[in-house]
């Protein structure tokens, strides 16, 4: 869900010829080998990408772009590879666009630098996003997208650090588009998170959620959400089509559900 909607946001920026800047606050390594020990240990991909059928009927260009980006990665490395957000973003960059990647974990930051060292339009910073993001915006391009996807095991339950970062970043760049990915494990905690977001006073907050299990199930990760500030025109309608294409393929329960709603309007 996250990667297809990310592609949709970036494709919307293509509607104007002038350059944009993409910033990823927790970029990881850029791409991953699913045959490696960490991926084999968790097996998360078995309930994700492994279930998706690219031939299942749809009329969503973002989905086609998603699978073409995956194919390009597999051709470059091997069939076992899967892209992180930087890979999908890079696949949607034009020559005039720029990408800034932040990663605080030293091992991941070195791997990220190595993976993109041959790309002059990509800058990699070994830097804490909670300090670094506000120092990097607004970008010189004045147009762009920030993806905030932190390691939530280090966040408190209703994600106050993330909300604070968004509020500070939006104050510096109110015309930028911001996307925050978050896990859904407990609906009560998500409601607290949403209340914190509303209290920021930021307008135009759109929430996209895909729950493969009931959202009150207490056994683990039930789904995920993407909060988007300043989404492009008609993005909500296209996002809804994406989520309802994904839902029957990824569902693990009869009460699985997908939704797109405005948390805060204009």
Automatic annotation (TrEMBL):
Binding positions for S-adenosyl-L-methionine per the UniProt entry: 3, 26, 85, 103, 128-129, 149
Entry keywords, A to Z: Methyltransferase, RNA-binding, rRNA processing, S-adenosyl-L-methionine, Transferase
Give GO terms for biological process: rRNA base methylation
Q: Which InterPro entries match?
A: RlmJ, SAM-dependent_MTases_sf
Active site per UniProt: 149
Query: SUPFAM superfamilies attached here?
Result: S-adenosyl-L-methionine-dependent methyltransferases
What Enzyme Commission number does this protein have? 2.1.1.266
Recorded GO molecular functions are: 23S rRNA (adenine(2030)-N(6))-methyltransferase activity; RNA binding
Q: Which reaction does it catalyse?
A: adenosine(2030) in 23S rRNA + S-adenosyl-L-methionine = N(6)-methyladenosine(2030) in 23S rRNA + S-adenosyl-L-homocysteine + H(+)
Query: What are its GO cellular component terms?
Result: cytosol
Write down the top EC class of this protein: transferase
Q: What does this protein do?
A: Specifically methylates the adenine in position 2030 of 23S rRNA.
Self-association state and partner proteins as the record states: Monomer.
The Swiss-Prot or TrEMBL record describes its family as follows: Belongs to the RlmJ family.
The name this protein carries in UniProt is: Ribosomal RNA large subunit methyltransferase J
- Chain's gene name: rlmJ
